[in-house]
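Pimeloyl-ACP methyl ester carboxylesterase, pasting as requested.
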Amino acid sequence: MTLSRTTYRLVILLLILAGILLLKKPVFGQAITAAPTRFSVVIEGVAPGKGPDVLLIPGLASSRDVYAAEAKLLTPAYRLHLIQIAGFAGEPSGPNATGPILAPVVEQLHQYLVVNHLQPIPVIGHSMGGLLALMLAQAHPEDVNKLLIVDTLPFYGLVFNPAATVETVAPQAQAMHDQFIAMPNDQFAASSPTFTNRLVKDPEGQRLVSASSIASDRTVFANAMLEDLGTDLRPQLATIKTPMTLLYPYETAEGPADQVTTLYTTAYATKPNLKIVRIDDSRHFIMYDQPATFDKAVQTFLKP
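Structure tokens follow.
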């Protein structure tokens, strides 16, 4: 079919107008961009410009819902960007199904902040989400103005042995990875509560954490765990100048409090601008076990 000159000009005009519309910012001024593929984002709270933006990253195999209770308290005054990693807690796996996960997630977080004009932003990260937050601050210091890290070590292998290295932990990490991959679904589901109960005391929290683990893509879960255990950020800590607050849990069953404290203080010994806060009577999921204390720490962290 041959277009007339008039029709041709009309088509060109419509394409130009369409391009202009795509370049415009939508309501509330959030830039249009291709959706991230390594994670999804749910935005809650005040409209842009009506309150500070905050980025929240959950941990291994976790849903963004780990922050649900805290989000309700923050949304009247803040604009929350709640992340969920692809492959975790029922989220489609996307490109996380194969290959590296952590570094590509960090780069997409950076792109998300750049395109949506969110730099610098406070970042809250729990567990592996805390590791991702540290990696983001190290790779792109302009992205983050302060960090709240919730029970994250710069090298997770230290929980096995304070003298551990990536090399010494590697065989055990690989064995754990292979065991998770090989485990039948029913066996994994049956064993999940036993593992989860070591991480959270609150019964409802136990149920939610277990459900998220069971709903996760097992390959993504195992591969991300293996990467986490193979990542040691201690050599880079001195270069991460971003102000940081570390929350770590303690309960008497773990042993003497000073030994637990030593684990965290030694691990972060070279990190400048660091405040360390111990949360008593809690396990790994502080937001479930001590929600009021967690909220107080978050509110204090977010104050200008």
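Note for the archive: Residues 5-23 form the longest helix (19 residues).
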